[in-house]
Design goal:
mainly alpha, globular
């Protein structure tokens, strides 16, 4: 039998293309912004610390509303949630491109993040509902993942070209034709959602309190570098974070009829371990991309277009590492795979710890690519652990929780490592110290994985998720 005959055409191909392009746009919007940060800072007058909010404003609301998006897709239907969130994301992109001030840009980026946090789990919910046969679902996830990851490499390159040739504002305007085209196609292509027999209320209070609490925590961490830990402003931020996060726990355990995050999910050792490792492993990732962007442009003087080209090898290294990870997970001890990836990532960041204004360019891009490849190797053990044993009907919850811990980890890491970098005598000295701390975090993640994970994580993930369980595909560029 020929290879073509043994692999029949994937049914509903138009649907998976639609969903993959939507996720591609979200991934593109992450990496495309990184390269434009110095131009945004110069145009709108951001300081280095306040510039982090262009990234963190997106990351925090993205992470804070992923759980709500997953539950909304489970309860209200993927099509409704997809169309609504995509419409808001497209309009928020327009607002970002037109932003006349720092406050407007950060506000619009936060709205972008909120809508992306709802949209991303909706795409995965529709995909897993459309492709019910394990083989078809696996192939659809493979297409969806490849296209989504490709957004990271394309975004770095496109962001540099648009910023260099036109303006940083075009990195947001480019979303308009894509978003409108996806809306038109989705209206025709996606089947209408069946009316649910019983709809429980969405836990909006939970989403607001957890997002507000995390925002207050990150803000306090960032301000501590300038004001000191004893500052009344910093202490007030920490108090607000504790109050809001405490309220979130009370809402989830005592108030909400349909909790955003049923804490019983953490009774599973694998779910707990997977999400803890997800948070730890992403602490250095967003900060590394942020620092490299500023280093290449502010310290080395590379224009945006060339900077975008330099980020392509790093993006491809993430892809290679994550693909190798998923191929190896069924044949390799999960603890060994995660520890190997963590130590490789740590070696890459430690190598970057010696950066200076005269470091040869290959000795910047090479170590950075090593770090990203190591991070990619960690992905399969974390993903499989975090989604193993999730009960039927909680696929959106599992996907949302895993992606939430990634985004929160990235935002907290940028705040913490950004404060460390800001304490350096020179910009490159500060970045070097922050990279060394990031390397230590990767080592700690590797050790935690060896302790917390079992050697084998169950069925071969290439066979597709178990019934009632959806495995989120890699999101390997920082959000």
């Amino acid at each position: 039998m020929s290879a073509a005959a043994s692999r029949p055409a994937l049914p509903e191909l138009g649907t998976v293309v639609l969903l993959a392009v939507a996720e591609f746009m979200l991934t593109l919007d992450l990496s495309i912004v990184n390269v434009a940060l110095p131009a945004i800072r110069g145009d709108l007058g951001f300081s280095q610390s306040s510039l982090q909010w262009v990234v963190n404003g997106y990351a925090l609301t993205f992470g804070g509303f992923l759980l709500l998006g997953g539950r909304a897709a489970d309860l209200l239907g993927g099509r409704r949630v997809f169309l609504g969130a995509l419409g808001v994301f497209t309009m928020a992109s327009l607002a970002c491109g037109l932003a006349p001030s720092q406050a407007v840009l950060v506000g619009a980026r936060s709205l972008q993040g909120l809508s992306a946090g709802v949209l991303s789990p909706a795409t995965l919910s529709i995909l897993t509902a459309t492709y019910t046969r394990p083989r078809d679902r696996n192939r659809a996830l493979s297409v969806w993942t490849a296209v989504a990851i490709g957004g990271g490499a394309v975004g770095a390159l496109l962001g540099g070209e648009l910023t260099g040739l036109l303006s940083w504002r075009w990195i947001f305007f480019v979303n308009l034709p894509v978003g409108l085209g996806l809306l038109a196609f989705a209206l025709v292509r996606l089947p209408r959602d069946a009316v649910a027999a019983a709809r429980r209320g969405l836990d909006l209070a939970g989403a607001v309190t957890v997002t507000g609490g995390l925002t207050a925590l990150v803000w306090a961490l960032m301000r501590s570098g300038d004001l000191g830990w004893a500052s009344g402003t910093v202490l007030a931020g920490l108090a607000a974070a504790a109050l809001l996060l405490g309220a979130f726990v009370v809402i989830e355990t005592r108030v909400a009829r349909s909790p955003l995050l049923p804490l019983s999910v953490f009774r599973s050792r694998l779910v707990t371990a997977g999400n803890l490792l997800s948070l730890l492993s992403f602490l250095p990732v967003m900060a590394a991309w942020f620092f490299l962007t500023l280093y290449l442009q502010a310290v080395r003087g590379f224009p945006p277009g060339e900077t975008g080209l330099l980020f392509v090898p790093m993006s491809l290294a993430v892809v290679a590492g994550s693909q190798l990870s998923f191929h190896a997970i069924s044949r390799t001890d999960a603890r060994l795979l995660l520890a190997t990836g963590g130590l490789i990532a740590a070696a890459g960041l430690a190598w970057l710890g010696g950066l200076s204004p005269s470091t040869s360019l290959p000795w910047v891009i090479g170590p950075a690519s090593v770090a990203m490849a190591g991070g990619g190797l960690m992905f399969a053990p974390i993903t499989v652990a975090a989604t193993a044993g999730v009960a039927a009907g909680r696929g959106g919850l599992a996907s949302g929780l895993l992606n939430t811990t990634r985004q929160i980890g990235g935002a907290l890491g940028l705040a913490i490592l950004g404060t460390i970098a800001g304490a350096g005598i020179t910009l490159s000295d500060g970045f070097g110290t922050a990279f060394m701390v990031g390397a230590g975090i990767f080592v700690a993640t590797a050790v935690t994985g060896v302790v917390a994970l079992p050697g084998r994580l169950g069925a071969d993930p290439s066979s597709g998720p178990a019934p009632g369980r959806q495995a989120p595909a890699p999101t390997t560029t920082p959000r």
